[in-house]
Design a protein that fits this description.
Layout lengths: L1 E7 L2 E8 L2 E5 L1 E5 L11 H6 L5 E4 H6 L3 H6 L3 H5 L5 E4 L2 H6 L4 E4 L2 E5 L6 E4 L1 H11 L3 E3 L11 H25 L11 E6 L5 H12 L5 E4 L8 H11 L9 E3 L5 H8 L5 E3 L2 H7 L2 E4 L2 E4 L19 H5 L2 H9 L3 H27 L3 H18 L1
Parallel strand pairs: 4-5, 4-14, 5-6, 6-10, 10-11, 11-12, 12-13, 13-14
Antiparallel strand pairs: 1-2, 2-3, 7-8, 8-9, 15-16
Helix pairs in contact: 6-7, 7-8, 11-14, 13-14
Protein name: tRNA guanosine(34) transglycosylase Tgt
Organism: Hominisplanchenecus murintestinalis
EC number: 2.4.2.29
């Protein structure tokens, strides 16, 4: 159950009550595609850096180790040793990202595994079954994510099919949650709005899926090639047609600035690989902008990545030492950067929640964006 606690303009402050605990929103979900955060980050680390929700990938876990294996191990929570909420995406994004390895039909999608080339079929029912085996807290509906530059006729047909798939997902999820061997009979289902950058298709689809009474609603198919301005415009026209009394999730987004702007438009769930991916390459986020620790100017820098930061890296280590680790290709360097970045994102969300609680979101957002922009010019 989602409880809307406060609004500051369109920004929402809420709580999602789940079988695995209460999620304070707005929230950033830390991405662990194959049931682990890339960069040697453990679930004990996630507890320490303030992670509320971990996100794993249905397609990748189906391919390896296999969702039946995870079910036999007691579900993802026991497998990973994580007792807080987990969201599993549906495999739908792989319909987009593995375009060269798949064929889309009404019944579902035929894949060739990116690991060993074997044939895989996934449709709405299969995706729900896999996610039920994984026993995540929140399951995502199976959809197609059309390219932002796809022809209007293709996008229209794709969205209509995604709507039909959503009805099948809901029916299958309802059935699975009633089965005696289901590990999590309280699994929630979020539907996904699509429509590329066509306002009218987005709005019509939002209205259609909003009528289904789902546990939450996502806006998908953004941050896939369109400009930031186009993304913000789509949120401006779409989010008002999704239920305000349910979570709104912007999938795969994004930079700290993207998150600040999207919160201002009524979004309260986020995920993105940026903090972990950038961290593995020595790029770290601060309130003064993003730093590249490979830069020679940090060779003798005794400061932490960010003064005052309470992450495990900043409490103990200097920029100079972390740069040395990165240059020496020591895994610890990558790990410390990922820990810092995830802590930065999690802490940013905490600051966002506090600002909305205080009714000061507009001034908070402006101050943050001004700090990022000023620093970007310097770096």
């Amino acid at each position: 159950m989602y409880k809307l606690l406060k609004r500051d303009g369109k920004a929402k402050r809420g709580e999602l009550h789940t079988v695995h605990g209460v999620i304070q929103t707005p929230v950033f979900m830390n991405v662990g595609t194959a049931a682990a955060i890339k960069g040697a980050v453990s679930t004990m680390d996630l507890q320490e850096i303030g992670t509320q929700v971990e996100l794993s990938n249905t397609y990748h876990l189906h391919v390896r180790p296999g969702d039946e294996v995870v079910k036999k191990m007691g579900g993802l929570h026991k497998f990973m040793v994580w007792d807080k909420p987990i969201l599993t995406d549906s495999g739908g994004f792989q319909v987009f990202s593995l375009a060269g390895l798949r064929k889309i039909k009404e019944e579902g999608v035929y894949f060739h595994s990116h690991v060993d080339g074997r044939k895989i079929f996934m449709g709405p029912e299969e995706s729900m079954k896999i996610q039920s085996n994984l026993a995540s807290t929140i399951a995502m509906a199976f959809d197609e994510c059309p390219s932002s530059v796809a022809e209007r006729s293709y996008v229209q047909a794709s969205v209509e099919r995604t709507t039909r798939w959503l009805a099948r997902c809901k029916a299958k999820m309802d059935w699975l949650n009633e089965q005696p061997d289901t590990l999590n009979p309280h699994q929630m289902l979020f539907g996904i709005n699509q429509g590329a950058i066509f306002d009218d298709i987005r709005v019509e689809h939002a209205k259609e899926i909003a009528s289904l009474g789902l546990d939450g609603y996502a806006v998908g198919g953004l941050a896939v090639g369109e400009s930031h301005e186009e993304m913000y415009h789509i949120l401006d026209v779409t989010v008002p047609h999704l239920p305000v009394d349910k979570p709104t999730y912007l999938m795969g987004v994004g930079t700290p600035a993207n998150i600040l702007e999207a919160v201002d438009r009524g979004v309260d769930f986020f995920d993105c690989v940026y903090p972990s991916r950038n961290g593995r390459h020595g790029h770290v986020y601060t309130n003064q902008g993003k730093l590249n620790l490979f830069n020679a100017k940090y060779e003798l820098d005794s400061h932490p990545i960010e003064e005052g930061c309470q992450c495990p890296a900043c409490r103990h280590y200097s920029r100079a030492y972390i740069r040395h680790l990165l240059k020496a290709k020591e895994m610890l360097g990558m790990r410390l950067c990922v820990l810092h970045n995830l802590y930065f994102y999690n802490h940013l969300m905490e600051e966002i929640r506090d600002a909305i609680d205080a009714g000061e979101y507009q001034s908070f957002k402006k101050a943050k964006l001004d700090g990022f922009q000023a620093a970007d010019k310097k770096e």
